[in-house]
Amino acid sequence: MRRRTLLACTLATPFISRLARADEVVVVKMGVLKLIHSITPYFYEKFVPAGYRVEVIPFESPNDCKNAVVTKSVDFGTFGVAAAILSAAAHEPLTVISSACNKGMAIVAAKGSDINKITDLRGKRVAIWPGSTQEVFVLERMRMEGMSVKDLTPVRISFSEMHAALARGDIDAYVGAEPAPGISVSTGIGKIVEYPYATSMGSLNMILATHHDTAEGKPELCKMMVNTQRQASAYAMGNPTAMMDMTVAKLGQKREALAISVPNVELNWQMTPEFITESTHYAEQMLALKQIKALPDLHALFDTRYSDAVAKLA
Fold it and tell me: So where are the chain's domains?
């Protein structure tokens, strides 16, 4: 009880002045994905308090980034909510402390193909990354249309390779993450079949997480990171040109592709009641799909203390 009271008092009081001594520089390792909707941490340097420096470390897949957080190879990470729920179901010491983005996904098919809607995926070769947020969304959309994954040929391809695979003709369609859909459309290779947001999960996508030890033992650091995510995501959303500039610099993408991708990205931070409801529906969907054997303790996984505290400062 004393520990909880102390933590509550810590979160309720001003924190920036206590974060680090003036003669120290604390390096915070931040894991990201090589996707435009994981671009927010690259803006952290504009808002992180004096005495702190954020080192951004990119990962190829959500599970790679999640594993880095669980093993404390990085201090924080931003990745899909699916990886977070899978981690909790496996009883790994992971805690979600902030939302990171909504949207940022699309079902894409070859431009000249006869695939124009979800049901047209029957019998097709479709790239889907196992264990990803996109996988859960497309499986739910197929269920809503009376389909299952057995109706198509799923192909395991990472997000960054999906556009190239479509261009080569290795696949007929993919369930991808931006900026790949923007690249496929802007180059004339692909077309958008659907933005798969018409489910009870809304447009839920990525979260900001840390190790359970960090969430419990370093409340000032966690609050600072959520506040930085708040400021950086608001800045990027309010400055789409800056978002594109950063994505060009860090991911090497072309502007014409990003002009299509940016409207399909909603960078954010707050763990709202809607976020919790959609995350719960998401976990229930994973259970129905037998991706997890039982629902994890979602109250323990989604720790809203820091988001709630930062919301009072905003």
Answer: 2-102+203-313, 105-194
pLDDT tens digits, one per residue of 191-240: 999 999 999 999 999 999 999 999 999 999 999 999 999 999 999 999 99
Centroid of chain to Cα 140: 18
CATH topology of domain 2-102+203-313: D-Maltodextrin-Binding Protein; domain 2 (3.40.190)
Asked if 2-102+203-313 and 105-194 have one fold, the answer is yes
Indicate whether 5 pLDDT > 70. Answer: no
pLDDT at 189 over 70: yes
- pTM, entire model: 0.86
Q: What is the CATH code for 105-194?
A: 3.40.190.10
Model confidence pLDDT, tens digit, residues 6-42: 455 556 555 444 455 556 899 999 999 998 989 999 9
